[in-house]
Design a protein that fits this description.
The protein is of the alpha+beta class and 205 residues long. It has seven helices and four strands; from the N terminus they run βααααβββααα. The radius of gyration is 22 Å and the shape is elongated.
Amino acid sequence: MLDVTVIEDPEAAAVSLDPIRARLLAELAAGPASAAMLAGKVGLPRQKVNYHLKALERHGLVELAGERRKGNVTERLMRATAASYVISPLALAAVQPDPDRFRDQLSARWLLALGARLVRDVGQLITGAAKARQRLATYALDGEVRFASAAERAAFIQELTAGVAALIRKYDAPETEGGRDHRIVLAVHPTLKETEPAPTQTELE
């Protein structure tokens, strides 16, 4: 089972968003189970659960983990193909965000568009690497910082921009034959606490 996988197909996305099927995915992410075992947990007849499992299986969201005999019946034990799923903007290709349409480094919506493109691109890279049986070279940095004031935050952004720009100038080799382009995405945004509502417009300014 994968830790996380990206859903790119629109039909698979629609299947995963169904509340009952999403509940079944959550149950199967915890461990293999049969339709009969799941029926009691989700409060549906076994035949109905089986119907939903077949839909999930058709779209690669669940897979056969094994079989077991129970009396005169052979039960299929199913499991989720991943512990969690992310829906790619490719599932809504006609209306997916385009960060190149506008560029505003201080816009939360532009940050959202960048994040959506990151999900789309990395999802496609993972799919391609899996098909080619190759390892995908990536890197991510995640951390938190508390700024004493808006002015301190602005100074941090200025230094961060200058520092990254200097690194790009140092290592960028656009004319090197055989080199490979890499995209760099850096984000700074307020930390969202589990018990707190989303920040207001005043808090973001």
